[in-house]
């Protein structure tokens, strides 16, 4: 059996953390910077960072078009935070000329939690984890939230109201959607790559494995 190749888009952002998380899941995790790199992977992670910068560099490198095409042909992609923004078909509070790769039929609000707090963490239940599994510690850093989704989009997690009172001090964030899946595309507002909990990456690697069968 050949080892799966799950690349990390390595233009800007926390590439190293995602690479380490993927390697811990037992896959090859090559850096993807060019169209040629992209052609060699079975799946791709879009890291957290700054979505405006990643968008601009991807367009400069001529990667945006080929990436959109592979997404349309079913490439499994996981985006965390800035990566979630890049997977959104529609963006609110984007920078003037900002574009996304798209693929998930959703509207994402950039820096949505930013008015209340720049970053926070909370315990989240993710619907793909087995019943009774421990919650995931979700770290949000100038994070987006999902404001609207098409019926095809599966909701995987919302911000629990209890954590809002405790950690955020505002009710505006309660119930906000922060993890979704549509087909082979997975997105989270938070950063599982920095907690040492591999369950989100393991789930994505399983998605890549299923798609490669
Ligand atoms: N931690 C992050 O990835 C932050 C995302 C950032 N606010 C953006 O707009 O891209």
Automatic annotation (TrEMBL):
Catalytic activity, as annotated: aldehydo-D-ribose 5-phosphate + D-glyceraldehyde 3-phosphate + L-glutamine = pyridoxal 5'-phosphate + L-glutamate + phosphate + 3 H2O + H(+); L-glutamine + H2O = L-glutamate + NH4(+)
Alphabetical GO biological process terms: L-glutamine catabolic process; pyridoxal phosphate biosynthetic process; pyridoxine metabolic process
Active site residues per record: 81, 191, 193
Lineage top rank: taxon: Bacteria
Coiled coil among keywords: no
Transmembrane region(s): none
Cited Gene3D superfamilies: 3.40.50.880
Gene Ontology CC, one term: glutaminase complex
InterPro entries documented for this protein: Class_I_gatase-like, PdxT/SNO, PdxT/SNO_CS
Pathway(s) where this gene product acts: Cofactor biosynthesis; pyridoxal 5'-phosphate biosynthesis
GO molecular function: glutaminase activity; pyridoxal 5'-phosphate synthase (glutamine hydrolysing) activity
Enzyme Commission number(s) of this protein: 4.3.3.6, 3.5.1.2
Pfam families according to UniProt: SNO
Sorted UniProt keywords: Glutamine amidotransferase, Hydrolase, Lyase, Pyridoxal phosphate
Binding site for L-glutamine: 49-51, 110, 141-142
Function: Catalyzes the hydrolysis of glutamine to glutamate and ammonia as part of the biosynthesis of pyridoxal 5'-phosphate. The resulting ammonia molecule is channeled to the active site of PdxS.
Family: Belongs to the glutaminase PdxT/SNO family.
PANTHER family noted in UniProt: PYRIDOXAL 5'-PHOSPHATE SYNTHASE SUBUNIT SNO, PYRIDOXAL 5'-PHOSPHATE SYNTHASE SUBUNIT SNO1-RELATED
Subunit and partners: In the presence of PdxS, forms a dodecamer of heterodimers. Only shows activity in the heterodimer.
Name of the protein in question: Pyridoxal 5'-phosphate synthase subunit PdxT
Taxonomic source organism: Kytococcus aerolatus
Gene that produces this protein: pdxT
